[in-house]
Amino acid sequence: MTSMRPRMLLLAGAALLAACTTAPPAPPQPAFDARAAVAAVRAAGGAESSELDVRPLRDTQVEDLREDALRLEREGKDAEAAAALDQALAINAEDPALLQERAEVALLMRQADAAEQFARRAIGLGSQVGPLCRRHWETVAQAIDMRGHAATPAGRNQDAAAQAEAATRQSAIQQARQKRDACTVAAPPRY
């Protein structure tokens, strides 16, 4: 019987230790990839061949600034691209495509609030259908997602309030994507 007692004590100690362990930490949240977010926005705007896509005539000075901004973005000079687009917006502040491009550069610069504001202004001014409409709403979704990544540092356990906030954020992203999907309208038949 004496040999059984140390075993029981050992088992009891192991059970106590097992009861004291904490749950493993949540897996770290991947960092927000701004370039991938902008690629997703632009992919959402991919026009289908049978889709209605209205494009206005452009001012040549604005077009030059837009091309400069695109070149600067490709070179990784996002702040300079934003400045070029801001100059273009000073010429034509109500161009939804220009506002959208500025929103995308704001995403690249990790300025979620500015990205969403530019996209929402573009939504208010632009067509409620087509590729550009889808880009606007995907930008809104990406900006909300970006703010979520900033609010929840990688590896941090979330309390109930943070979990509720994350659920609200996911709902807002889902709503933006539903509106994005509603932007697709087939072109009228051609005879």
From TrEMBL:
Signal peptide per UniProt: 1-25
Region (Disordered): 148-191
SUPFAM superfamilies hit by this protein: TPR-like (SSF48452)
Coiled coil location: none
InterPro entries: TPR-like_helical_dom_sf
Biased composition (Low complexity): 154-172
Keyword line: Signal
The protein, known as: Tetratricopeptide repeat protein
Gene source species: Lysobacter niastensis
Lineage: Bacteria, Pseudomonadati, Pseudomonadota, Gammaproteobacteria, Lysobacterales
